[in-house]
Design a protein that fits this description.
The relative contact order is 0.17. This protein is mainly β. It has helices at 2-6, 79-84, 106-112, 144-147, and strands spanning 17-18, 23-28, 31-36, 56-60, 63-67, 92-94, 101-102, 116-118, 125-127, 134-140, 150-158, 163-171, 182-190, 195-198, 204-207, 213-219, 223-230, 238-249, 254-263. The strands form 3 sheets. Strands 1, 2, 3, 4, 5, 6, 13, 17 and 18 form a 9-stranded antiparallel sheet that branches. The protein has an 8-stranded antiparallel sheet with strand order 9-10-11-12-19-16-15-14, with no helix packed on it. The chain has a two-stranded antiparallel sheet with strand order 7-8. The model has no long low-confidence stretch (mean pLDDT 86).
Length: 268
């Protein structure tokens, strides 16, 4: 291992950008964000692929805060289409449609499973790192064929890992005006070990045993807490919660949101 690390240009440090696998990593202090900014795999290799482009997971120390629903590998196959859908990921969804389409042919399912038959083809991404800030901007065209809309997500981690800011934008290719209105929702799935409380000002606080509290705020859409399912639980699916920002496009072309670390866990 020492010999390998000696010839490793990274010095054994985790990569912030993995362009070949399509992931971005933001890491400051004890906070880590992993975001999916890759193109879905080719159809022949997509029988287990998810429609989760631009989704992310947020963790602090050993606690998972924001997650994707994951997969119940040992459970009924009926759960798989739900777990692979965009709605099961912490990203934006338009008109309750996944950003990828799956083959649902009964004949093909027996041989190929349910591979992707379409989805994002272009997912440009660029890093926006600066002094004390790690971030990226990425977009995907998975909603262009059905709705003519591009989803762009910008994320930045700063303040030593105590502030995660995001912007979700919706536009037409080439920057022309969106003519057809549609329903949009940005979902943040919360790990089952994390509870959510709301104060009198409407702010949502995420807290859990042995971890710090984080406050979620947004502008452009009012946050609501809804039920969710965490399929990847060790003992099988578990009930969980999700924060949902629902709005209409193009009435709201951009939504800003942030997670702010506000309190220390007891005993820390």
């Amino acid at each position: 291992i020492a010999a390998v690390l000696h010839h490793d240009d990274t010095g054994g440090k985790p990569l912030l950008s993995a362009p070949h696998s399509g992931y971005q990593r933001l890491s400051l202090g004890n906070t880590t964000v992993i975001a999916d900014t890759g193109i879905p795999p080719a159809q022949d290799f997509s029988r287990h692929a998810h429609a989760g482009t631009l989704s992310f997971e947020l963790s602090f120390e050993r606690a998972s805060l924001i997650v994707n629903a994951g997969v119940d590998a040992q459970g009924p196959e009926d759960y798989l289409p739900l777990a692979r859908a965009t709605a099961a990921h912490s990203t934006a969804i338009l008109n309750d449609a996944s950003s990828c389409r799956f083959s649902l042919s009964p004949r093909a399912r027996r041989v190929l499973g349910t591979p992707l038959v379409s989805g994002p083809r272009h997912v440009p991404v660029s890093r926006t790192d600066a002094d004390g800030v790690q971030g990226f901007v990425a977009s995907h065209d998975g909603y262009v064929p059905p709705f003519g809309i591009i989803h762009e997500r910008e994320m930045a981690l700063s303040h030593g890992g105590s502030l995660l800011e995001g912007h979700d934008r919706f536009s037409r290719p080439g920057g022309s005006a969106i003519r057809q209105a549609g329903d949009a929702a940005i979902r943040f799935h919360i790990h089952p070990s994390i509870s959510v409380s709301e104060d009198e000002d409407g702010r949502l606080t995420l807290s859990g045993k042995g971890t710090d509290a984080w406050v979620f705020t947004a502008s452009g859409a009012e946050p609501h807490v809804e039920e969710s399912v965490y399929f990847a639980g060790i003992a099988g699916p578990r009930r969980s919660l999700q924060i949902v920002l629902a709005f209409r496009v193009p009435e709201v072309p951009e939504v800003a949101w942030r997670f702010t670390r506000v309190a220390l866990a007891s005993g820390s």
